[in-house]
Amino acid sequence: MKKMMITLIVICFILPGCFSNQTGNEPVNVNNKEKLVIENENNLTLDKVTAALKTEGIEMFIKELNNDWILNNVHANRFSVSRPTVKEVYKEYISVYIFNSETARREGLNDFNHQKEKYDMQIPNIYEYKNVLILYWHNETVDNSKNAKFNKQIEMAIQKI
């Protein structure tokens, strides 16, 4: 009986140790759906993107929206780039989408292009880099979109990532 108890205790300590250093993809709960997150060292994170934008002098305020675009099953991280005192009509926004891969990002852009056909709307400036898609919702006309307030700063931030 003593040998059996000692054997059980040893097994309880050894088995967890055998599996503690295993690597691989782990399921992450995203919006109540199980998703497999594939980590790739070349992929960018939201923290890296927002840090690069802030380095270029873009002050960003988190904006929670329930009706933002969902592209290729990815929700946007939306930020207001206007001061909180600016009237809602004049505010500008940056939507940052972090995809699992560049391929998923391309599919997300295709999804956006397909969805926007349904609406008569302002077209945002679109920036793509690695697994990141940024939509800059500005107040300029389509013809003047290159002169939008934060256009150059966003381009510089992407180049420096």
Automatic annotation (TrEMBL):
Keyword vocabulary terms for this entry: Signal
Keyword Signal listed: yes
Signal sequence region: 1-23
Domain of life per record: Bacteria
Protein name: Lipoprotein
Organism: Paenibacillus xylanilyticus
